[in-house]
């Protein structure tokens, strides 16, 4: 829907200079990566091509190549399909072939909304399931307005407004991605990163707006990240709503993007 500009979404612009490459998932099927290089001048919807302009701006500011993952979407592919895809992409990026093809070592995980959830989930999975020293491998995580407790935090349960994503729409999205009949215990650490062992993980930025329904998620995981002995920065942007750093909102958007760039530069 979003990629095609239907159902109320604007068709996102694509950058002609961006490249695509295909790697293999763990089940042998193909998965596309979108490569956005520096230039001289969420789990239910979205595509790897849908944020070219945003990724180009970050790539330019940081001097890094940005890689976006075409992970499978719910409800056709519920938990843990997208989680496995994100992890498989990360494993490829840290492999010798991946480092060669992508032009350098993996330095940052970054994501917004469901992408922030996947960034944290993947960092933990690399450590626990694949024996990767995530803290030594990654310079940091940049996580914007993510949901880290799939059983819901108080800010979401009490949320009344409906800007971009409201309480009821979030419930529907989570039920599609984590079907109740399949995911019985949403507080399980394999489902909700907030309840996982967070020791020995890289520095992380948890960015969120104060008007976001899931603001508690960033506050709570930031506290647990720090208590586990990791560097954590929680940045709450006044009046920011869900996806505020992507949407033209003047100074609020600029502040969000500035926080992302500032943190990334501080850990690189």
Automatic annotation (TrEMBL):
One of its GO terms (molecular function) is hydrolase activity. InterPro entries: AB_hydrolase_3, AB_hydrolase_fold, GDXG_lipolytic_enzyme. Keywords: Hydrolase. It comes from the Eukaryota. Coiled coil: none annotated. The keyword Hydrolase applies. Residues 41-245 form the Alpha/beta hydrolase fold-3 domain. This is Related to lipase/esterase.
């Amino acid at each position: 829907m979003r990629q095609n500009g239907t159902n109320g979404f604007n068709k996102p612009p694509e950058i002609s200079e961006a490249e695509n490459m295909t790697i293999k998932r763990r089940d042998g099927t193909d998965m596309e990566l979108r490569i956005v290089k520096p230039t001289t001048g969420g789990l239910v919807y979205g595509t790897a091509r849908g944020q070219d302009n945003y990724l180009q701006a970050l790539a330019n500011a940081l001097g890094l190549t940005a890689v976006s993952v075409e992970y499978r979407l719910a409800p056709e592919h519920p938990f843990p399909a997208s989680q496995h895809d994100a992890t498989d992409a990360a494993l490829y990026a840290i492999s010798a072939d991946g480092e060669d093809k992508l032009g350098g070592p993996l330095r940052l995980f970054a994501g917004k909304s469901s992408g922030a959830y996947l960034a944290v989930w993947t960092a933990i999975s690399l450590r626990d399931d694949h024996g990767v020293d995530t803290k030594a491998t990654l310079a940091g995580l940049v996580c914007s307005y993510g949901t880290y407790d799939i059983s819901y935090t108080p800010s979401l349960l009490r949320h009344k407004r409906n800007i971009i994503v409201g309480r009821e729409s979030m419930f529907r999205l989570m039920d599609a991605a984590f079907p109740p009949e399949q995911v019985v215990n949403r507080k399980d650490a394999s489902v909700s990163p907030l309840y996982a062992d967070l020791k020995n993980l890289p520095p992380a930025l948890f960015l969120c707006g104060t008007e976001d329904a899931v603001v508690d998620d960033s506050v709570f995981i930031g506290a647990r990240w720090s208590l586990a002995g990791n560097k954590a920065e929680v940045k709450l942007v006044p009046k920011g709503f869900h996806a505020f750093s992507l949407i033209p909102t003047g100074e609020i958007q600029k502040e969000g993007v500035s926080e992302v760039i500032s943190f990334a530069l501080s850990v690189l």
